[in-house]
Specification:
The chain is α/β, with parallel strands linked by helices. It is built from 12 helices and 10 strands. Helix 1 crosses helix 9, helix 4 runs antiparallel to helix 6 and helix 11 packs across helix 12. It is globular and about 80 Å long.
């Protein structure tokens, strides 16, 4: 199955999106030297791909430049391109987010017959904070429908998929006008609902989201490192910290860095990194936990005071619980 491997890039000298995209493409080239790689970008970014940033042109096969309003932020231009990419690129493609590492060949399974494919967001539907975002935006989709991560999308070149991306782009603009330009997955979910669940499930190996897909890491094809995670999660793996890519700006031998990244990725987790149970993970995504976590990192002195208070509260809880257990035992006797 001949497909293109598509990346979307909007970048300046001050961010790390160029470095992320370049490293991902280089790791793809190691596994698939003959892959046809397409880079979709805007005019402002293309004009900046010179000097040291011209390296990316050497490792792609096709550069597509779309004129966009330069006054828009890089984030908005990126989302504008991504949600409309099907209508800018000819041929079947596998879209791959920039913050990814490719660990093996990406030939599509011969038995995959769907028009679109993706992996569930966070590899599960049991709890998804983005559903609350959908509700807040007034976006609704079927309760029995999967909620997909938009970091890896397989898309065939059909009339249906072109209309799908036209609608996704319209819904993203709607969200952006409400102040939520970062969110492309809620409008993706709504579009999928409107198009009768056209997106089919791909195995988690195709988009192993590092914080949630530990069971897919061993056989992962694409590792989605997601450098936008919260403060604490940056200390799980070096590549989840943006510093890794800012340091890359000064690394002249990026080809060597790509090889080292692939060979050492699975053994580079920071010492003390732990696997947690689904129950703990559910709790870790509550607002109360996130608040405490951020206070712990950003206001350590205040956290110590809170911790003393919580210790007193915890001891009181245990005492009250023991008292009621004792009363229940007397009643039963």
């Amino acid at each position: 199955m001949n497909i293109k491997y598509l990346y979307v890039l909007t970048s300046t000298d001050n961010d790390i999106y160029y470095e992320q995209t370049l490293l991902s493409i280089l790791t793809l080239r190691i596994s698939m030297p003959d892959a046809f790689v397409t880079l979709l970008t805007d005019t402002a970014t293309s004009e900046n791909l010179d000097g040291g940033r011209a390296k990316i042109k050497e490792v792609i096969n096709e550069l597509i430049v779309i004129p966009l309003d330069r006054t828009l932020s890089g984030l908005k231009r990126s989302r504008m391109l991504k949600t409309a990419m099907r209508n800018h690129v000819n041929g079947d493609f596998l879209f791959i987010d920039s913050d990814t590492i490719i660990l093996s060949s990406l030939d599509m399974p011969s038995d995959f017959n769907g028009e679109m494919g993706a992996v569930q967001n966070r590899h599960t539907n049991y709890f998804n904070p983005s559903k609350r975002q959908c509700k807040k935006l007034g976006i609704r989709y079927g309760i029995n429908y999967d909620y997909f991560n938009s970091g890896v999308l397989y898309v065939k070149d059909t009339k249906n998929t072109k209309e799908f991306f036209k609608r996704w782009n319209e819904l993203w603009i709607y969200c952006s006008n409400k102040g939520y330009c970062l969110l492309d997955q809620p409008p993706l979910a709504q579009t999928n609902y409107e198009y009768n669940n056209i997106i089919q499930n791909l195995s988690g190996e195709w988009n192993c989201q590092i914080c949630d897909g530990i069971n897919f890491i061993c056989n992962a094809k694409i590792i989605h490192i997601i450098t936008t995670h919260t403060i604490m999660e940056r200390y799980i793996h070096p590549m989840m910290n943006k510093k890794f890519f800012f340091d890359m700006k000064n690394n002249k031998d990026v080809d060597k860095l790509a090889r080292e990244t692939i060979s050492s990725f699975k053994s580079s987790f920071f010492e003390g990194t732990k696997i947690v149970s689904p129950q703990y993970d559910k709790m870790a995504h509550t607002s109360a936990f996130v608040l405490l976590k951020d206070i712990y990192v950003q206001l350590p002195r205040f956290f110590k005071i809170m911790n003393v208070f919580c210790l007193c509260l915890l001891n009181s809880f245990y005492f009250i619980r023991s008292f009621f257990v004792y009363l229940r035992s007397i009643t039963h006797d």
